[in-house]
Design a protein that fits this description.
With 903 residues, the protein is α/β, with parallel strands linked by helices. The protein has 35 helices and 20 strands. The chain has a 6-stranded parallel β-sheet, with helices on both faces. α4 crosses α17 and α24 packs parallel to α26. The two termini are 58 Å apart. The relative contact order is 0.08. The N terminus is likely disordered.
Length: 903
């Protein structure tokens, strides 16, 4: 039954009874008002749920706390001690940022974000966040990036950091990398931070997919993650990022009741109000509840409870519901009399309600996000939600810059404030009641002091006991392996050494076969995580569906339409393939979860994320950078690569630049293989490098093409595997001829290069060596490192870059052809010595047409390779220019048309 306007289309079994109910409602509204009617309807809905009478959930509730005072649980901690600990941390967090900006003007840092969220974190640290000291993976906590100073300040209290560390906040160079990174960065602080979060929106989406990956490991019986919770802390302004809320329906659909979002609703973005004319908490509640989440609102502190209890006419509730966030922000910066006149004053009933309160008491009526008991109740309810199948969002109303003083709290510029005057620091100290710990004399020093309680103090002992009980300090990143992984049998790769014989296949097909081999490996196969964003059939990977099965947390509740086919769409709760749907961002979040499992869980997993190459780095480049920062390991496979290989699709699908974008990421190993044996070699060595005896925190990007051709046999030279990994090797010798040339190829451009070599020899007396350039980035990085060594060792014999050494063995002009833009091969142009180097690439916008037409359009086909070689020979005087003109005429090249860059 649908409960909306269409209810009038449904039959009424008892019109008289219906009329009685409607009349009763009308009477309540007329006699007692709309609020009483809302209350009764809410109670009816509650009773309907208790009686298991299904009804659509309401997406918005009144602007009050979700947990009533009478339902709050007993608080098991010592509020006074925890308030003292919180005060120490608040002070040190502020002082760290102030001292940093005093010692290095403009170094930055954030005072206000942690100030508003300190209570949110401390209730977690003292009562909920589980560490890894008990031999489990613990909880996974995604700290809000701008709150990093507070997390460092707590680590300082625990003794994990010292004053020298705090004084190197945002100053990482030197000290052997022991500075404190500006934000959570596992790449920079690999033993401290687990998850990078400051690129807004990426923390929430990766936390969500981390929770899903935990269930994936559990359902596949690889690791027991049943006790691990995922906590994601985020700001209300951050919720404007598409990545923040874009996947929350997945969390409910997958029944991720192991996931909790804690949203710090301080009502402010970086420049001003989040929803000045609206109510962000109400908006987020509707969004999360509509997506199937359990929502807990923590709006008002305990001092409001008595006022609400006396609100018999619901006038206070009405005022709360009607006041917009811009007004609430204004009340923070105004005095108590302003609040009395403007919030309570217009209605005499409201004014009377607070007549017993002073202006100062009105000004300090707290928001719920600063009330420890309210927060404890919300967090406890979230943890007890396990088993409901519903993820939880805790929406906490706070004040940006809370406790930092009237000059900072709630101001539009609060986010940008990095310094505090002596008077402001004194105000902070007094607000935190730290007069004994930080006397006036200490404030007269050149720099404000840090404070750490003695180890024999009650506060220190309490804090450390709580963390011991909960499994040790957090955050803490560990790479200790709990469940080792065997490397795959070399036979999984061996079949590609012999080529494909007479059969024409694509490198994508070759990779799919290799992936199947790896998944079948008895020792290694269970650790393979295939990830596909709804393009498995495009990539020819549907053959894996019935064998590996698609992961579905609730299994397959239906019989698929293709169940009688060999390649049917098969889902299973123990399925291995993560078929993510049309979401590259979600797929990358899964890649990060799988690629960091070796550290997060101590269980190495090997993700293979295969995607339309155009929609990888271009669409979700920020997440790929996050993978590098997370120290993720695994393989990114850019299928349907190239600007001319993917015929017919046009400029929105044809990729000629992902290799450039991939090359900007330092820890991404970038390869553009032409043949199946190259793909197999790169993956074999990549697995060994990432998961072998001395694992490295890198990941790989390989292009895969959808063009079928006969795969050649792997060359039998003893160093061929290392040559492939080094980025360049001679693929075929030149045939005897009068003139010499060298042609480099990569990816699908090998066909044009091979055809050009035959044409040059047959018709122009030119012998061309063919070299396979598997990785221009690898060649460039080695050459740059060699240059640096030479520059810093001026009195020693210079080293020669590898690419220079290799190409010195060849002869004639060098022409490089690629299905990507020219800037890809141009990475080595400086290192070829005195010889000419001419790249041919697919610069410009894509087109829809045949491969032949596209390659002619972009001038990367056989005729253009031939003409380029002849042109370079003519420039050096080895042949007459008329030979070039003859070749242009021979191939019917249109010389006066605009090039692909301008067409």
């Amino acid at each position: 039954m649908i409960f909306d306007g269409s209810v009038h289309q449904l039959p009424d079994a008892d019109p008289t009874e219906t009329a009685e109910w409607l009349d009763s409602l009308d009477a309540v509204v007329e006699t007692h008002g709309k609020n009483r009617a809302r209350y009764l309807l809410s109670r009816l809905l509650e009773r309907a749920r208790e009686a298991q009478v299904s009804f659509p959930a309401t997406v918005s509730t009144p602007y009050v706390n979700s947990i009533a005072r009478e339902h709050e649980p007993w608080f098991p901690g010592d509020e006074h001690i925890e308030r003292r600990i919180r005060a120490y941390i608040r002070w040190n967090a502020a002082v760290m940022v102030v001292r940093a900006n005093s010692n290095a003007e403009g170094i930055g840092g954030h005072l206000s974000s942690y100030a508003s969220s300190a209570s949110l974190y401390e209730v977690g640290f003292n009562h909920f966040f589980r560490g890894k000291d008990h031999g489990t993976a613990g909880d996974h906590i995604y700290f809000q990036g701008h709150a990093a100073p507070g997390i460092y300040a707590r680590a300082f209290l625990e003794g994990r950091l010292d004053e020298h560390d705090l004084d190197h906040f945002r100053r990482e160079i030197g000290r052997e990398g022991k500075g404190l990174s500006s934000y959570p960065h596992p790449r920079l602080m690999p033993e401290f931070w687990e998850f990078p979060t400051v690129s807004m929106g990426l923390g929430p989406i990766t936390a969500l997919y981390q929770a899903r990956f935990n269930r994936y490991l559990l359902n596949r019986q690889i690791d027991d993650t049943s006790q691990s919770r995922v906590w994601a802390f985020l700001g209300d302004g951050e919720c404007d990022e598409p990545e923040t809320l874009g996947s929350i329906s997945l969390a409910a659909r997958e029944q991720l009741d192991n996931l909790t979002f804690v949203v710090n609703c301080n009502l402010q973005r970086l420049d001003g109000p989040v929803r000045g004319n609206g109510k962000i908490i109400q908006e987020l509640e509707a969004t999360f509840r509509g997506a199937g989440w359990n929502v807990i609102k923590v709006v008002w502190g305990s001092k409001w409870d008595e006022l609400l209890a006396n609100d018999n006419d619901s006038v206070l509730l009405n005022k709360m519901n009607a006041t917009v966030d811009g007004e609430f922000q204004r009340y923070i910066v105004e005095d108590g009399n302003y609040i009395r006149e403007n919030f309570f004053g217009p209605d005499p009933r409201l004014r009377e309600m607070v007549s017993h309160l002073s202006d100062e008491q009105l000004r300090t009526l707290p928001r719920g996000g600063h009330d420890y008991r309210k927060l404890y109740a919300a967090f406890k309810a979230a943890t007890e939600n396990l088993g409901s199948g519903r993820p939880t969002a805790i929406l906490c109303k706070t004040v940006k810059g809370w406790t930092l003083g009237h000059d900072i709290e709630g101001r539009n510029a609060t986010h940008q404030i990095k310094k505090m005057t002596d008077e402001q620091l004194r105000t902070l100290r007094d607000t935190l009641h730290l007069e004994e710990e930080i006397p006036d004399s200490a404030l007269l020093a050149d720099e404000p002091p840090y404070y750490r309680p003695p180890h024999d103090s009650v506060e220190y002992q309490y804090m450390m006991e709580r963390r011991r009980t909960l499994g040790g300090s957090v955050p803490r990143r560990s790479t200790a392996v709990r469940k080792p992984m065997a490397l795959p049998d070399p036979q999984a790769f061996a079949e590609f050494d012999n080529g494909s014989g007479e059969q024409a296949v694509s490198t994508t097909m070759g990779f799919t076969r290799l992936l199947r081999n790896l998944a079948r490996d008895k020792s290694f196969g269970s650790r393979v995580v295939p990830i596909i964003p709804d393009e498995g059939r495009t990539f020819g990977m549907d053959a894996l569906f019935p064998e590996l099965k698609i992961y579905a947390s609730q299994g397959q509740k239906y019989e698929p339409v293709d169940h009688k086919l060999l390649l049917s769409y098969t889902e299973s709760s123990s399925g291995q393939i993560l078929e993510e749907g049309i979401t590259e961002a979600g797929s990358m979040a899964s890649f990060i979860a799988a690629g960091t499992s070796y550290a997060v869980h101590g269980v190495p997993m090997v993700p293979f994320y295969t995607f339309y190459s155009m929609f990888g780095f271009q669409r979700v480049g920020d997440l790929i950078w996050q993978a590098a920062d997370s120290r993720a390991r695994g393989f990114l496979l850019g299928a349907t690569a190239g600007r001319t290989t993917l015929l017919g699709e046009g400029l929105q699908h044809q990729d000629g630049h992902s290799l450039v974008l991939a090359g900007t990421i330092p820890f991404c190993q970038v390869y553009d293989p032409s043949f199946a044996y190259e793909v197999a070699t790169i993956i074999k060595h990549g697995i060994n490098r990432m998961y072998g005896e001395k694992p490295e925190d890198v990941f790989y990007y390989l292009t895969l093409y959808n063009e079928n051709y006969q795969m050649p046999v792997r060359p039998s030279t003893p160093t061929i595997e290392q040559d492939i990994m080094n980025g360049l090797y001679k693929w075929s010798e030149a045939k005897p001829a009068q003139h010499k040339a060298t042609i480099l190829f990569s990816g699908s451009a090998h066909a044009a290069a091979r055809a050009a070599a035959d044409e040059l020899h047959a018709n122009f007396n030119v012998s061309a060596e063919l070299w396979s350039a598997t990785s221009y980035k690898t060649l460039r990085e080695e050459a740059v490192a060699t240059e640096r060594w030479n520059r810093l060792h001026p009195t020693e014999t210079p080293h020669v870059p590898r690419v220079t050494q290799l190409l010195s063995q060849s002869n004639g002009p060098i022409v490089a052809v690629t299905d990507f833009v020219r800037s890809v091969p141009e990475q080595i142009a400086r290192y070829v010595g005195e010889r000419t180097f001419t790249p041919l690439g697919t610069d410009g916008m894509g087109r829809s047409d045949t491969r032949e037409a596209l390659r002619n359009h972009f001038e990367v086909d056989m005729p253009h390779v031939v003409i380029t070689v002849l042109h370079e020979l003519a420039l050096s005087g080895q042949i007459d220019k008329s030979v070039v003109a003859e070749a242009i005429s021979r191939y019917g090249i249109q010389t006066e048309t605009l090039g692909s860059l301008y067409a």
